[in-house]
Amino acid sequence: MTFRCSILALLAFGASIGTTAAAKAGEREPAPARSAEISVLTYNVRGMPWPAARNRGTAMGAIGRELAQMRREGRQPDVVLIQEGFVGDMAKLAQASGYRYWVKGPDRKARPAAPLLGARYYLVGEGWGKFAGSGLHILTDLPPDRVATLTYSACAGLDCLAAKGAMLVHLAVPGLPGGVDVVNTHMNSRTAAKVPWSRSLTAHHRQVDELTAFIAAERDAESSLLVGGDFNVKNAPDRYEHDRPIRPFTVVSEFCTRVASCEGQPADQGQPWLKSQDLQGFASPGAVSLRPIRIGALFASPDTGGRLSDHDGYLVRYQLTWRAPAAQPAPQLVAGIEAPNPIRVATVR
Fold it and tell me: Is CB count within 10 Å lower at the N or C end of the chain?
């Protein structure tokens, strides 16, 4: 089921699950229950410049065209979270994809992160300054009405060359109480940072602390929260467990393993949250019930030219349910659905 068959159909055409009859004569009838679904893709596209990577312009264009093909087939993700969209060819991806809105994360002029304890590892990029922005982008057809960004204040090794951080975009969904806050992030790598693991771990812990504080400060308490990105936690429980007691969201793979079954989640994967760098998470406000119902992978099968990135795309479909006043008109979506006009770019400076 695609976005058009979920949020855009259920919200735009006012579908509802139904109403509950009053238990006693004379009681006010409960508000009707409404339900919708939203799908989120997080994808590290490896859009790095030469010599770190080669032929990324070709791959970025191919990713955009594949997203456009999904749109033509009615199965495009509702929200796409991009990491490592560093090269100028990110514009090719965004334009080709057909999404109406493209929101960019912090650029390299944002407040720079500082290497830990001074520039001790100068030969691997610490203390050089920023050569790239955050590489974070969000694509969607839902109208964004608020954007907040964060550049992490600590980094280690080669990661210091980019302004890694996080971005929060509030998506207005008329009729859905509070709308949706979407967070995209990319955290310090471990081996690829080319510094001792203890050093990159310290940077990662500080970034987790800052992400937690950022969400607490910028999230609308009345909004549903969806979080995704490249957390760089594969085979790294010391990274994953940091700040777990105060984590402001539930990790999807944990929920689908320990709490409730989700379509597509293997039952015998042990700890799937430690088998990928990429995570998604969610949190519900009081007025809306939110949970993942299906997970899957996109861009996972090699095509004739090989994989388009060194990551798979991680796709999660969520279900939202809420009570709407009986007199409230059917929700209407203001964003376009098919063949949008030239893409609108909301640039964060």
Answer: C
Query: Virtual CA dihedral for 264, 253, 64, 67, nearest 10 degrees?
Result: 30
Is the CATH number 3.60.10.10 carried by domain 7-15+33-342?
Answer: yes
Domain locations in the chain as residue ranges: 7-15+33-342
Provide φ and ψ at 173, rounded to 5°: -125, 90
pTM (whole model) above 0.90 = no
Specify burial of residue 62 (Cβ count, 10 A radius: 0-12, 13-18, 19+). middle
Task: Give 151's strand partners.
Answer: 165
Instruction: List, as one string, the DSSP characters of 113-144.
Output: PEETTTTTTGGGTTTS--SB----EEEESSPE
Radius of gyration of the chain (CA): 21
Contact assessment for residue 113 and residue 75, using Cβ atoms and an 8 Å cutoff: no
Count the neighbouring beta carbons within 10 Å of the beta carbon of residue 283. 17
List helix spans (H) across 90-196: 90-97
